């Protein structure tokens, strides 16, 4: 590490308070309005202080020109951690990256105020610091994308769980209303959910209502057949309801064999069959 590089690190260490103050002010001026409400002023200061201290510690060991060395790993991890926290709080990618770029602007301004004697060394060190902060911005961008993907995957899983409710309409009778398009991943969730409920409720009749499925093709039909086959292995009798005329024509046209599967046009018809199987009778009560 050069003598001027050591001098620069000393300048930053001595003017730590000024750098943190200017950095926070810069963030406020660059699209971070309302961030105190999202993460709190104290937490914002803590994040900024921790990142600055980690950066100075790494630079003190190998300089700003070696940001890919192991000594800078703690800085990279901290940038990724802060970015992930802010992404989950609702910060945009622009706000997250601006957080790093604002520090770069402040550091260069601090160097300018110190009025270095050797302009050549000053420019060289500015280039080096710019490169280091740009690397940190790339790390922040990568962490933002990764966190957003994790959030989207979790939300998709939550939507899958919500879209496959198993309703216990009577002792031993389950109804699984299917709504929307079926694909392999969702079909697996449907099968697992139904089998778990069959075991937990000790049910022996399961109704798959496909009234809300807009399209039935060969793949969808195979998914339904596999689900029913799995339920039968668990000892439950299965029936499909909600087969509309257009779906019936499609199934026949595709040559899908449902001859071994009990079907009903409506959910009401399927429930009547299920009640008959359990020797239950629905009686109209005339009393008001």
TrEMBL record:
Q: Which residues form a coiled coil?
A: none
Q: Which InterPro entries match?
A: Bact_StressResp_Reg, RsbRD_N_dom, STAS_dom, STAS_dom_sf
Q: Name one Pfam family in it.
A: STAS
Naturally occurring in which organism (per UniProt): Heliophilum fasciatum
Question: Which residue range or ranges hold the STAS domain?
Answer: 163-274
| Keywords annotated in UniProt | Phosphoprotein
Provide the protein name: RsbT co-antagonist protein RsbR
Phosphoprotein: present as a keyword of the record? yes
């Amino acid at each position: 590490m050069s003598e001027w590089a050591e001098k620069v690190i000393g300048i930053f260490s001595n003017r730590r308070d000024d750098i943190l103050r200017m950095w926070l002010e810069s963030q406020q001026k660059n699209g971070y309005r309302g961030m105190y409400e999202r993460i709190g002023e104290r937490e914002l200061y803590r994040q900024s202080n921790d990142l600055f201290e980690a950066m100075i510690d790494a630079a003190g060991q190998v300089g700003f020109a070696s940001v890919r060395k192991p000594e800078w790993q703690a800085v990279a991890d901290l940038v990724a951690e802060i970015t992930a926290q802010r992404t989950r709080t609702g910060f945009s990618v622009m706000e997250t990256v601006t957080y790093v770029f604002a520090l770069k602007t402040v550091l260069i301004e601090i160097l300018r105020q110190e009025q270095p004697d050797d302009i050549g060394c000053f420019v060289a060190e500015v280039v080096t610091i710019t490169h280091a902060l740009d690397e940190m911005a790339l790390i922040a961008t990568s962490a933002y994308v990764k966190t957003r993907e994790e959030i989207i995957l979790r939300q998709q899983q939550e939507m899958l769980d919500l879209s496959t409710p198993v309703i216990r309409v009577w002792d031993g009778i389950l109804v699984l209303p299917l709504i929307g398009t079926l694909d392999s991943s969702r079909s697996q969730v449907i099968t697992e959910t139904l089998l778990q409920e069959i075991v937990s409720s000790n049910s022996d009749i399961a109704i798959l209502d496909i009234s809300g499925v807009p399209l039935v093709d060969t793949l969808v039909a195979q998914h339904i057949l596999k689900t029913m086959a799995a339920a039968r292995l668990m000892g439950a009798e299965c029936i499909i309801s909600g087969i509309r005329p257009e779906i019936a024509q499609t199934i026949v046209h595709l040559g899908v064999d449902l001859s071994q599967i009990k079907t009903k046009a409506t959910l009401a018809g399927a429930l009547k069959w299920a009640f008959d199987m359990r020797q239950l009778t629905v009686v109209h009560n005339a009393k008001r």
